[in-house]
Amino acid sequence: MRQTVRLFDKPPELFKLFQPLFGPKSIQYANGLEGRTRRNTYDRAFSHEAVGRTFPVLDECADELIEKLRAMAAKGERIPLSRFCIGLAIKAILRVTVEPDSASLPDEQVAQLKSCYDLAWNEMEARLTQGEPEAGDHRVQAFNDALSHLHEFVDSTVRRRSAMKFDSDVDKTFADLAIELHAKDAEALRSDVITYMVGGFHTSGYLLLWALYYAIQHPNLADRLRAESAEVLGAAGEANMAAIGQMTFHRAFLDETMRLSCLAPFAARVSDAEVEVGGHTLPAGTPVIQALGTAGMCSEAYPEPDDFNPDRWTGQQLFEPFGFGRRKCPGYRLAYAETALWLSRLLAAFRFRLVDETYTAVSSFGLLTKPNEEVWVLAEAL
Ligand code: HEM
């Protein structure tokens, strides 16, 4: 896989199935100079410094969730963990990439966005496994309704943001950079905002969910996470990039979570000229799959690969959960920062257990791997 590191372009046909959701002009399908220009522009919003400035927002989002969970824990209510993790990630991605200063999004709006996303994403994956629906099938109407709701939401936030003036580039979010870049192309603007929004919440939301699930299954490891965050965040007084960087067991726990859950199973590349990869000559235009998930289960690199063992994360790794090279996931710093922070905050506040102690999560594989049903837990406030 590392031999493909220099390739930038992605094979558009491989991701075409998701085009109705992301939009025809999404960065997913932008190669060559166009793709590089977009990445150079947008990546400024996800630099080390830019992510460092998001901690107050990420903390506030965690505070809101913890308050809600405390109330449920006090009444002994069952908690739908997946719904809450995705809700948290939706709020955070919208405040980080679009409007940091907005009053928190109402829960009803987050719930509606989540249900539109669920419907649209499940429909895209159903097209992968069951084929395209017939014209007139109710699936088409339901998908179109969900998509127009997402479009309305994005268009109205873009309108609000377009009217703003900034004293400094530091105050600009990803959406502001996209608005400037696509001043004359509303379709590309909407496509990229949806791509970053969806790309940014379902991945981090499900990473947090899988991490909490593994923490429930391994209480001794959960205690090590608690001890590390008490030591590092306790000494730092507040979360910031330096403190998160010192939480090396959290990082290993998250990497092991992405490996074992196979969260993002693959990336892909294509070259417009003949290339040599791993001793093979590939004619121009040959798509190459980077099998991230398969690399993570390689038993030579990861002995007993089915075991959850964060202590295996030392030194050079075969598995790269965010891909390689210039086209690696733009959100990787944000994803590590937010999920490490939320994992530490949630485990410091609660001890979780499964409602059904015999429950084992069954993976639903697609472009992203998630449990095939809601994960129900109970929380005890600490
Ligand atoms: C646990 C969290 C995440 C995982 C595992 C993940 C994984 C990935 C992977 C494997 C790719 C393909 C990279 C490649 O082609 O080399 C990717 C691309 C992408 N990710 Fe992430 N991602 C995560 C979080 C995020 C976040 C927080 C954002 C929002 C900023 C984001 C936005 C994107 C976008 C827009 C692309 C496409 C970029 C392009 O086409 O140039 N991701 N991600």
UniProtKB/TrEMBL annotation:
<dbReference type="GO" id="GO:0005506">
    <property type="term" value="F:iron ion binding"/>
</dbReference>
<protein>
    <submittedName>
        <fullName>Cytochrome P450</fullName>
    </submittedName>
</protein>
<comment type="similarity">
    <text>Belongs to the cytochrome P450 family.</text>
</comment>
<keyword id="KW-0408">Iron</keyword>
<dbReference type="InterPro" id="IPR052666">
    <property type="entry name" value="CYP450_20A1-like"/>
</dbReference>
<dbReference type="Pfam" id="PF00067">
    <property type="entry name" value="p450"/>
</dbReference>
<dbReference type="GO" id="GO:0004497">
    <property type="term" value="F:monooxygenase activity"/>
</dbReference>
<keyword id="KW-0503">Monooxygenase</keyword>
<keyword id="KW-0349">Heme</keyword>
<dbReference type="InterPro" id="IPR017972">
    <property type="entry name" value="Cyt_P450_CS"/>
</dbReference>
<dbReference type="InterPro" id="IPR001128">
    <property type="entry name" value="Cyt_P450"/>
</dbReference>
<keyword id="KW-0479">Metal-binding</keyword>
<keyword id="KW-0560">Oxidoreductase</keyword>
<feature type="binding site" description="axial binding residue">
    <location>
        <position position="329"/>
    </location>
    <ligand>
        <name>heme</name>
    </ligand>
</feature>
<dbReference type="GO" id="GO:0016705">
    <property type="term" value="F:oxidoreductase activity, acting on paired donors, with incorporation or reduction of molecular oxygen"/>
</dbReference>
<dbReference type="GO" id="GO:0016020">
    <property type="term" value="C:membrane"/>
</dbReference>
<dbReference type="GO" id="GO:0020037">
    <property type="term" value="F:heme binding"/>
</dbReference>
<dbReference type="InterPro" id="IPR002401">
    <property type="entry name" value="Cyt_P450_E_grp-I"/>
</dbReference>
<dbReference type="InterPro" id="IPR036396">
    <property type="entry name" value="Cyt_P450_sf"/>
</dbReference>
